[in-house]
Specification:
The protein has 16 helices and 11 strands. The protein is mostly helical and 434 residues long. It has one domain. Helix 9 runs parallel beside helix 11. The chain is globular and about 60 Å long.
């Protein structure tokens, strides 16, 4: 059985709060893949897999640890908080003037947040593309794509500049702005969620567009030249394709092209999986590792997130996926008190949320949420000047610090030193005064 709309229903049973300590890793370039021997792989495969209960408790522990921390709207930007919403949906609470408030409701009711730039458009409500400073929107229709994965309906209100719009106004503007050659990964998520799959419309380029045409355009793109190894393109195609197949569609035309690309990516994710269970630091390009744990969290988290949209229920339970989940949990456990770049962190959390839903039948139950008082709070504002020195959001792992170092060569001291030495554009934790 293929996943359907598990993302939109993912967060209904989760309550609590969460914190992100954002880190933009300063990275260099290397294209040296990890040399992987059969002995390495055999050794890793000999490590016993956890029982169902042990695995569930470990995943819940990681989700709970991150859930029990929070962001501050006066110190953090939209790019960070929207990623937090992707990870935890309506459960995400943030500090506003020392008080915890639901992040989604706060934004939709007109909350002011640096980088949350919306304005009236020609056909609806336009989300303004940011300048690449990791404060505003980094990709076209990125905000719409995140909101589409919540339980928000077309007519739900969103307040901008004191005027009330509808979520659907973001959709109609996205339809109008569609064009050949655009980065449509996030646009596809939004449109395939809210529009009938047989919808036809004319964009401002004068051409007629359909969901299938967008899918076909995305299927032709080079994953290795795409943001985050192409995982966002894959997720966009997958979300549209899953709905199409659930509604009885046949694999033909653009839909068949997308399925082929997705199947190839799944095969490569498995083929290039590392001996410790993490996924390749070069995504679907080749087997590779990085000594930087932030890179490993980002690549493994993004890959797991994609796989949770692509795999059948039977495949989700296969040992190689379990190994990937355990590896990701280990990395997040190791870095729970360290700065971690927010995109990497929350895409990893989203992947684990989807895995938890599909493997164990639901989100982390309320009773597992830790009621320990929150004491850690990011206090250092990420300034615009710091953000300008941050790593571009679309930087691929092949441009990052990928070296011939195995995960077993890395150690917590090395990870912490690497994280702290690349501290540009981060928010550091400190005690929060309540």
């Amino acid at each position: 059985m293929r996943p359907r709309h598990c993302t939109r229903r993912l967060f209904a049973g989760i309550v609590g709060t969460c914190l992100l300590v954002a880190l933009t890793a300063a990275v260099g370039c290397s294209d040296s893949p990890t040399a992987e021997t059969s002995a390495d792989r055999a050794s890793a495969q000999q490590e016993p897999l956890p029982s169902e209960e042990e695995l569930r408790q470990r995943v819940d522990g990681v989700l709970r640890t991150t859930l029990n921390r929070h962001l501050d709207v006066n110190q953090h930007a939209a790019w960070q908080i929207i990623h937090g919403i992707l990870g935890y949906g309506r459960a995400l609470q943030v500090y506003d003037q020392g008080q915890l408030v639901p992040a989604v409701d706060w934004l939709l009711r007109g909350g002011q947040l640096r980088g949350w730039d919306l304005r009236p458009g020609e056909k609806g409500l336009e989300a303004v593309l940011g300048p690449g400073d990791r404060a505003g929107m980094g990709h076209e229709d990125q905000w719409l794509a995140v909101l589409a994965q919540l339980d928000l309906e077309w007519d739900d209100p969103i307040v901008v500049g004191g005027k009330t719009y509808k979520i659907g106004d973001l959709v109609t503007e996205a339809q109008w702005d569609v064009r050949d050659g655009m980065e449509a990964s996030w646009t596809l998520i939004g449109l395939s969620t809210y529009l009938p799959l047989d919808a036809r419309w004319k964009a401002k380029d004068g051409k007629e567009w359909t969901i299938e045409r967008l899918v076909a355009m995305e299927a032709k793109q080079d994953l290795n030249a795409s943001a985050c190894g192409g995982t966002h393109r894959l997720i966009g195609m997958n979300m549209a394709l899953n709905r199409y197949l659930a509604e009885g569609g046949k694999l033909e035309g653009g839909w068949a092209a997308a399925q082929k690309v997705i199947d190839q990516a799944v095969a490569k994710a498995k083929q290039y999986q590392q001996p410790d269970g993490s996924f390749s630091a070069s995504y679907f390009q080749r087997p590779a590792r990085s000594p930087d744990i932030a890179v490993r969290i980002g690549t493994t988290g993004h890959t797991l997130e994609f796989l949770m949209f692509a795999l059948t229920d039977k495949q989700v339970r296969e040992p190689w996926i379990t190994r990937g989940v355990v590896a990701l949990c280990k990395m997040l456990e190791r870095t729970k008190s360290m700065p971690v770049e927010c995109g990497a962190l929350y895409h990893a959390i989203h992947g684990l949320q989807l895995y938890r839903m599909r493997r164990f039948g639901g989100p982390m139950p309320v009773e597992t949420v830790d009621d320990t008082p929150e004491t850690d709070q990011p206090a250092e504002t990420t300034t615009a000047e710091q953000n300008r020195s941050a790593t571009p959001a679309a930087q691929t792992p092949s441009q990052q610090s990928i070296q011939n170092v195995s995960a077993t060569d890395a150690n917590p001291a090395h990870d912490q030193q690497a994280a702290l030495s690349s501290n540009s554009g981060t928010a550091s934790p400190s005690n929060h005064s309540k």
